[in-house]
Amino acid sequence: MLDKLATAIVTTSTVYLAIGIVLAPVIAFRGVRRIDAAARDGTRGFRFLIMPGIAILWPLLLIRVVRGGPPPEERNAHRDAARRGTSP
User: Fold this and answer.
1) How far is the C-alpha of 32 from the C-alpha of 27, rounded, in Å?
2) Which of 30, 54, 61, 62 is the most exposed place for a label (fewest CB within 10 A)?
3) Run of H or E including 39
4) CA distances from 84 to 73, 75, 76, 77 (A)
């Protein structure tokens, strides 16, 4: 039973990473333009450096590329207090 579970985990991880490796160059060289305005002017070296992270985080980045729109804004207690005009 544990060997089947281990096989399933390894197979799932392999498929996940394989999809990430295939999508990483596409997202790095085309999709990053839609995701982050600061990365639009990035060099090829920069794009190669971000590919391992893209390969791991591909589902989140693929959703961002497909949806487009502005990057998400960080939200925490300090920013919320600043918007309200009060101190935390």
Assistant:
1) 6
2) 30
3) none
4) 16, 13, 13, 11
The rounded mean pLDDT for the chain is 90
The continuous run of DSSP H or E covering 52 comes out as helix 44-56
Residues of the chain short of pLDDT 70, as ranges, are 87-88
**Token match 């399933």: residue?**
8
* Residue 21, CA distances (Å) to 60, 62, 86 in order: 14, 13, 46
How would you class 27 by CB atoms within 10 Å of its CB: exposed for 0-12, middle for 13-18, buried for 19 or more? buried
Scored b (16 or more CB within 10 A) or e, 41-75 reads: ebeeeebeebbeebbeebeebbebbeeeeeeeeee
